[in-house]
Amino acid sequence: MSTQKKRALQIEAFRHRIVVDPKYAEKTWKVLEHAIHEIYNHNASGLSFEELYRNAYNMVLYKFGEKLYTGLVTTMTSHLKEISQSIESAQGEIFLEELNRKWVDHNKALQMIRDILMYMDRTFIPSNHKTPVHELGLNLWRDVVIHSSKTKARLLDTLLELVLRERNGEVINRGLMRNIIKMLMDLGLPVYQQDFEKHFLDVSANFYCRESQKFIESCDCGDYLKKAERRLNEEMERVSHYLDPRSESKITNVVEKEMIESHMHTLVHMENSGLVSMLVDDKYEDLQRMYNLFRRVSDGLTIVKDVMTSFVRDTGKQLIMDPERLRDPVDFVQRLLDLKDKYDRVITMSFNNDKTFQNALNSSFEYFINLNARSPEFISLFVDDKLRRGLKGVGEEDVEIVLDKVMMLFRYLQEKDVFEKYYKQHLAKRLLSGKTISDDAERSLIVKLKTECGYQFTSKLEGMFTDMKTSHDTMQGFYANLGTELGDGPMLSVQVLTTGSWPTQPSPPCNLPVEILGVCDKFRTYYLGTHNGRRLSWQTNMGTADLKATFGKGQKHELNVSTYQMCVLMLFNSAERLTCKEIEQATAIPMSDLRRCLQSLACVKGKNVLRKEPMSKDIAEDDAFFFNDKFTSKFFKVKIGTVVAQRESEPENLETRQRVEEDRKPQIEAAIVRIMKSRRTLDHNNIVAEVTKQLQSRFLPNPVVIKKRIESLIEREFLERDKVDRKLYRYLA
Amino acid sequence: MDASGIDIFEIYRRYCDIKSGHAYIGGEEGYRQDSDLQKAKVSREALTQLSKLVESRVTTGVTIFDELSMLMSRLNLRADFSEFSRFYDFVFFMCRENGQKNITVSRAVNAWKLVLAGRFSLLHPWCDFVEKNQRYNIFEDTWQQVLAFSGFTHDSLDAYDPEGAWPVLIDDFVEHVHRMLGSYYDNSNLHCNCDDPESQSWVFDDPLPGLTIFSGLKRKLPDDSSKSDDMDSNDMIFSNCKRSRAHDAEDLEDNPPGNTAYDCMETSRQNSPLCSSMSPCAVEGCLSKGFAGLLNLFLCVVW
């Protein structure tokens, strides 16, 4: 009985609903429409979510989704039109606030409406390819409110006006700006880009174009760059506060283009404040700012680098070519080192240790250092000065620093073999005169040179040190062996120099005093007795002597003189008066050397142990010399005629150059022979290229000289030309 | 054998044998030891022996150049370049003295004038240059390269490559010639006169030889001779052309008929550049005149 009742109830209910379908849909929609109105009118608190949700659910379920969706669109549109009018009627600055408030309300309403219509969102809308409720709400807001004819232009103008005010220093409501911008973003990136960003960028470009023009006319370079930097930072800050992050690169590009790129050349070349002025005045901060800003635009750093390079080259060239500078080689090189230090500092502190700038600096130095053919000599003289006295008392670490700097300049030289020739001369003088401050420092530099140019470059230099060591041992052996026989004779110290290692010129032997000859002969006997087959020749032009002398009033002095000077002075032990000619005959010292000796002994105040008649600077053959009984000095030890390395005179320089050229020929030939020996057959251009490659660590061979060497080798039958191809050479075993 | 009995012909025969590796003494040794190195060594020694033999000859008042001239007249050098090349090397061999491997400048210059006449368009400028500038003897490689260079100047010095493994002396000479040509060309501008009917006629006449057969060219020779009188003012280069043409005239008469086609082709090829420069306007007039000058160089090398 109860079962029958259930069935009857169910059947009855179904039939009942079908019957009221048209009425039901309309009635149900009225309920929902009213609810939407209430939501927009802030009266949602009286609504029943459950009832509304069920109504929407049933409409969809009973196939009235289309009606529901259409009704929604119509109702929302109607409300948004009212909202739009309300916003448009807002006056002045209230406009943006009103817009923001309405937007917040719309979002709340949209949230509720979407919740009520969630079932439709999940079923009907996907099936019928409709726009989801929330998105629909945003689209309608965009189309009805934001893009209304009055609001659209006004919104943009208002936003841009506020940005402009902020750029001009005013404080604006950033929170409000952030909200409005976020609204545009919520409506979709294209809305933000089309409705705001595009115009913002255009207006900004105009702004910065005008501002940069004003700045460029009223500011110096440093100030301008400060302003540009500040503007960049402001724009980045603005983005972080209320714009979309994606806009940052776009707005910074605008600033970079208008404030930097457009005026790059003007800025760099500004009189009294541009890049050159910054470099001259060590404006590290300004330089760094320029580097950082110019790095932001294409070719910016290229311009900076080119101007720096050009300026460094000009500065270096002036330094290199200044006749005044060439008088003092040590000062000359020191200025080069200072110049390098200066620009290294600029690159380190301001240019981010940029490799391209370092390379540009290196190529600049290589360019101008090789403009002056004297550079190799001067660098060697600088080393000589440092190793004689400049580095005396300096710590080992600081010595290394100076030597490393010297190596840096050395690396720039294209004629390293010229440096080697001078270095050898100067080293020889340091070693033979005992003037070097430290053997360790000397050897340290030689190790660096070897590392740079190979063993062959330094082998003779090392031979010089070996000779010094060997000589020391030899003298010890000599005195240990013959000490008792020598008695009260003069002390002898001999340096045995290997021929070829030392830059000696053959000097005619002079007549040594009898007192010296004895001990010299003993040494010769001793040395040749322990070294079979050797041959000794005395280099009297390179020695020194210490003499004890007693003058007129009994005052005693110890004189430090050259060997030649010793030979001259010893004559006066047995002679009162001697002419220049007579001295020459007695000593066999070459006249040019003798004149210099006598000048040092007789014409230098405070050191004139000889007296000359007539009293004049020049020395003629018949001038007379006397022992100077009246000589006085406050020093016990008197040093006369110290030999110091000096820059060569022009003829000497020319002579050295010619010797360098002569030394290059066998090196080029040896390179050719080495190459052809390994290749057996090779064409002309490749020989030239290979020879150049092999030798360029020492010097750049002249192709014409290479060609001449090839001809010489053909003549001497080391090489021959191929019968068929005249450019092809063959090696003849 | 009596040394004084050896004449230039016998020496040349032995020289050729040695060079071709057929010397009877060298040949025997060569067969025993097959290496090229050994052959080269034997060849060198044989040449040394021959050189001593030559120097030990008793001179009878006839100079080496007289002998070489006689030898040249007997050999068929014009037709066979490899034969000429060997003869050219032989000349150097004969000019050596006192066991030296090189020869003096004066001997080299005389030898070049004898041997390269009619073959080297820049022969006289070259000889003048060497006499004035060369301080050392001429050694064999340079001597040989001059022959290669003389062939090279058939076309133009513009193609000369200073990096092309030429001896330094030839490099210097080319630089010298370029300077001379430069100054000549500059001067020619000053004397350009396109309104001169004789000048125009001269320009128009030149292309004609290129269009005729070889025999036709022969008939033109008298005209060229008369024109050369008008070219007295030309500098050394063009004087050289005149002399060279004289040689060509002589050689043409002796030329075997078999070479006619070849020479004719050479003529056509070398004349064609001028045909493209016919316009007698002022500027091109200068160009034509300058180019015509160069063309005369081309004509000189036809043989």
From TrEMBL, chain A:
A Pfam family annotated for this UniProt entry: Cullin
SMART domains from the UniProt entry: CULLIN (SM00182), Cullin_Nedd8 (SM00884)
UniProt-listed Gene3D superfamilies: Cullin Repeats, Cullin, Chain C, Domain 2, Winged helix-like DNA-binding domain superfamily/Winged helix DNA-binding domain
Domain Cullin family profile residue range list: 374-602
GO cellular component, one term: cullin-RING ubiquitin ligase complex
PANTHER family recorded: CULLIN
Name assigned to this protein: Cullin family profile domain-containing protein
Gene: LOC100782239
From TrEMBL, chain B:
InterPro entries: DCN-prot, DCN1-like_PONY, PONY_dom
GO biological process, one term: protein neddylation
Domain of life: Eukaryota
A Gene Ontology molecular function term of the record: ubiquitin conjugating enzyme binding
Gene3D superfamilies: Cullin, PONY binding domain (1.10.238.200)
Domain DCUN1 residues, every copy: 1-178
GO CC list: ubiquitin ligase complex
Job description of the protein: Neddylation of cullins play an essential role in the regulation of SCF-type complexes activity.
UniProt name for this protein: Defective in cullin neddylation protein
Organism per entry: Glycine max (Soybean)
